[in-house]
Amino acid sequence: MEFENLDVLNDLNLDNNALSGMIPQSLGNMKKLHVLSLANNQLTGPIPQELSGLQDLVKCRLGGNSLEGPVPEEICSLNLLQLEVDNNMQCSCCTGDN
Asked: What is d(CA 68, CA 37) in angstroms, rounded to the nearest whole number?
C-alpha cells in the first residue's frame, strides 16, 4: 500500500485489520498525521525510522503485532502523548532510559 498521496490525512486507524508484512516506509510522507494506529494486526519487522518525520504525530499505537528491534531514537524525540509498542521491543523513551 502506498501513502504518498495522503499528505493531508490527520488520523489513520487501521487497528484489527489482519494487516501483514512490514510497516511501509511511505507512512513517513504523511506529514500532517496526528494519529497513527496500527495495533492488533500481523505486522512484522522493525519500526521504520521514516516515521520520525511525522512531526505533528501525537499518538502512535503499534502494539499487538510481531514487530522487532528497538524503537528508533528519532521517534522517541517526537512530542508523542502516547506511544504504544509491545513489551518485547527495546524503547529508551518508554522505559525512561534516554
From this structure: 17
* Contact (Cβ atoms closer than 8 angstroms) between residue 25 and residue 46: no
What residues contact 95, with CB distance under 8 A and at least 6 apart? none
What does the angle CA 43 – CA 32 – CA 27 come to, to the nearest 5 degrees?
25
CA-CA distance, 95 to 18, in Å (whole number)?
28
What pLDDT is recorded for position 89?
Answer: 80
- pTM for the structure as a whole: 0.88
| Model pLDDT, residue 98 | 39
List 83's β-bridge partners, or say none: 60
